Amino acid sequence: MNAWKEERGTSQETVSLLQSIFTNISDAVLVVDHSGMIVTVNAAMERISGWSQDELVGKKHICEVCLGMATCQEESTCTDCFFKRSQMPSFEMRLRTKEGREYPVAASSTRLPEGAPGKMVMILRDMTDQQRAEKERYQHKLTNFVIQAQEEERKRISRELHDGVGQALYSILVGLNVLGQSKLSGAMKQHVADVQQLTAKAMEEVKRMALELRPSALDDLGLLPALRSLIKRVEKSFGLTVDLHVQGARRRYQAAMETALYRIVQEAMTNTAKYAQAEKLGIVFEDREKEVVVTIVDDGVGFDVEAAEHRGSGLGLFGMKERAQLLGGSVDVRSAIGEGTTVIVRIPLPKGEAEHGDTRPDR
């Protein structure tokens, strides 16, 4: 730095400023000589690489800490090395840390002007957080796509069951009724009656499957009517007493939001009915100014939430949280052995909907 000052006539104040920048900048900076030996590094380089200044300066060659550019492939790793160019404004490289770990960094390099013959300065920026964020965004988009595709497929199959298989079974049942009214022997008449009963049961099963896949009320009438229908089915199937309390406006929401809330409540109710040994379940649905909050409380045996999530047996908790997170919301599950379970779902309202509301009534 002093030699540079003498050659360029740079003031002490400027040199001090440059030295301060070199020392405190968050990006790693290293200078290598014409042969590739490291001649100086800053504190950020020590932090990123794990090597100390004493371990790097004069002792490490650039090739000992560089695993190649991101575009390099196998044997061609060094054929187009940045070190062979006078300047590379932007590229990705893989840094080798002291522990031997591969570290992705965004890099730029340039040859220093005369006065520092052959020396090259490199600036490295940590990309791990950026890559992690990009990976999370990609997973978020992929999960959203999968959920949307799943719901569309459920809707299609539900309609085919109802309009196709259901109608076919109904036609068969009508034919059997007509046949049963004709003059048949006692044994044949009983056989027709048995087939009628089996067909009626099949119709009920098809109807149940269609409702489980995608209740038509959710699309035609809205979230609250669909939830009331779900509650009746759960009470009938499991003997569970369910109370629903609605606070605030009763309206329609965006399709994705209604679907997510329905599936989350459905999962929570199913878990309670199957595993909680509960007698009562309460649901409070609140339409607030900027969000919808649904609280589901049961008086069951409870469970260890952390242990269940750690074992990967979180009773659908992961799926519930994924659906909420896709809409910028959250699912908070609170439970303990012998103390029941509380699930709190928060989904923010889209800005326009929060300010003006949706004029479609939810009956």
Protein described:
- With 363 residues, this protein is α+β, with helices and mostly antiparallel strands.
- It folds into three domains: 2-126, PAS domain (Beta-Lactamase, 2-Layer Sandwich), CATH 3.30.450; 128-214; 217-363, Heat Shock Protein 90.
- It is built from 13 helices and eleven strands.
- It has helices at residues 2-8, 12-24, 43-49, 53-56, 62-65, 128-180, 186-213, 216-220, 223-238, 255-275, 305-311, 317-326, 351-356, and strands at 28-32, 38-41, 66-69, 87-96, 102-111, 120-126, 241-247, 280-287, 291-298, 330-335, 341-348.
- It has a six-stranded antiparallel β-sheet. The chain has a five-stranded mixed β-sheet with strand order 7-8-9-11-10.
- A hairpin with an 8-residue loop joins strand 5 and strand 6.
- Helix 6 (128-180) runs antiparallel to helix 7 (186-213) and helix 10 (255-275) packs antiparallel against helix 12.
- The protein is elongated and about 115 Å long.
- The relative contact order is 0.07.
- Residues 72-76 have low confidence and may be disordered.
